[in-house]
Amino acid sequence: MQTVKMVVTGPFSAGKTELIRSVSEIDVVSTERKLTDKAERTVKEATTVAMDFGRITVDEDLVLYLFGTPGQKRFDFMWEILSEGMLGFIVVVDSTRPETFREARSILETFRAYAPTPYVVAANKQDLEDAWEVEDVRNALRLDPKIKILPCVASDRDTVKTILLELLYSILEEMESGG
Amino acid sequence: MALRGNLRDFTITQLLNLINLARKTGTLIVEGPNETAEIAFREGKLAYAKIGQEENGLAMILHRSKQLSANQYEVVLQRAESMTDKELGLTLINAGYISQEDILANLQQYFTDIIRRLFTWVEGFFRFENDILPQEDRINIRLDLENLIIEGSRQLRELEQLQDEIPTLEMALKFTERPGANLQSVNLSVEEWRVVSFIDPKNTMKQIANAAKLNELEIRRIVFGLLQAGLVELVRAEGAPAPKPVRMFPTEDREEQKTLVNRLIGRIRSM
Ligand SMILES: Nc1nc2c(ncn2[C@@H]2O[C@H](COP(=O)(O)OP(=O)(O)O)[C@@H](O)[C@H]2O)c(=O)[nH]1
Ligand SMILES: [Mg+2]
Question: Per CATH, which fold does B166-271 belong to?
Answer without folding.
Answer: Arc Repressor Mutant, subunit A (1.10.10)
